[in-house]
Specification:
Strand content: under 5%
Number of helices: 3
Structural class: mainly alpha
Radius of gyration: 18 Å
């Protein structure tokens, strides 16, 4: 594992590993859920698994590997009140 202190979600990791072993991977994955459950770490660990033949763990950890893209949504703008005085 790329992260020594990652608490693996066994059910999800088993599904990802099974897809990898059976060569039945979809075109994309979307990791979502509550904050702090390990989505980003699991996604990076899975990317390392997919690229294990030619991967450097350090490059993945720093998002410097050409096969990894991290997409994070930007926060929404606050709604403006048209009646508020300037």
């Amino acid at each position: 594992m790329i992260y020594n202190n990652l608490i693996i979600n066994e059910k999800n990791w088993e599904q990802l590993s099974k897809m990898y072993e059976n060569n039945t991977l979809p075109h994309a994955f979307l990791f979502h859920g509550n904050e702090g459950i390990g989505k980003e770490a699991h996604a990076i660990a899975f990317a390392v698994l997919l690229n294990k033949e030619h991967s450097s763990n350090k490059k993945f950890k720093k998002f410097q590997h050409p096969n990894i893209d991290l997409i994070i949504p930007l926060p929404r703008d606050k709604t403006s009140n048209k009646k508020a005085s300037a």
